[in-house]
Amino acid sequence: MVRRLRKLSGAHKPSNGLILANGGVLTTESAISLSTHGRRGNDRYPTRDNYELLPASQLPPSIGMHAEGQAIVETYTVEFDRENRPRLGHIVCRLKSNGHRVIANHGDITTLEQLSSWTEEPIGRIGFVRQSLTTTGQNLFVFRKDDTCRL
User: Fold this and answer.
1) Which domains does the chain possess?
2) pLDDT of 15
3) pLDDT, greater one: 19 or 117
4) Quick count: other Cβ atoms within 10 Å of Cβ 140?
5) Pairwise CA distance, residues 110 & 21, whole Å
6) Helices and strands of the chain, counted as H and E runs
7) What is the DSSP letter of 7?
8) How far apart, in whole angstroms, are the C-alpha atoms of residue 39 and residue 62?
9) C-alpha dihedral, 75 to 146 to 98 to 112, nearest 10°
10) DSSP symbols for 98-117
11) What gap in Å lies between CA 151 and CA 146, rounded to an integer?
12) Which of 11, 23, 78, 96, by CA, is between 20 and 30 Å from 140?
């Protein structure tokens, strides 16, 4: 892609290119946009993150490492085994109590089945996050509060 863009740049034709790459088992995705012309208005590229320039309403939420309580599913993914059975659920959710974002695994088989359902969308649903009793630092998510969060 770079060679092609350089060749086109020599012909004084502004060109753009997009490279998309998947890695792992479709678990990692990267993209880069390349161009033969600079930024509009001759603006310089930022040399540091500009989070401090954002209004508070646009800042990313804090991350809750050791979380407990009611939470809303923001996104999720499910790993499947070689027989196409759900194996492990990864849930990104937001605590209702303080707005912190939490990363958790499924806490029971029922939750894992609901995450891998073809008919029911988990995003936006409310569940509960607890600490694992067996693995230090692991958050577990269930859709029903009375579930025991056992793997």
Assistant:
1) 1-37 (no CATH), 69-142 (2.40.50)
2) 77
3) 117
4) 25
5) 34
6) 2, 7
7) H
8) 32
9) -10
10) T--EEEEEE-SHHHHHHHT-
11) 15
12) 23
Residue with tokens 């409310």: 126
Picking from 132, 57, 122, 128, the residue whose alpha carbon sits closest to that of residue 97 is 128
Reported as a single tens digit per residue, the pLDDT across 122-135 is 999 999 999 998 99
| pTM metric for this prediction | 0.63
**Cβ pair 19, 31 in contact under 8 A:** yes
- C-alpha 90/C-alpha 37 separation (Å) is 41
Strand 139-142 and strand 101-106: the pairing is parallel
Per-residue DSSP letter, 17: E
Cβ atoms of residues 84 and 56 within 8 Å:
no
Radius of gyration of the chain (CA): 22
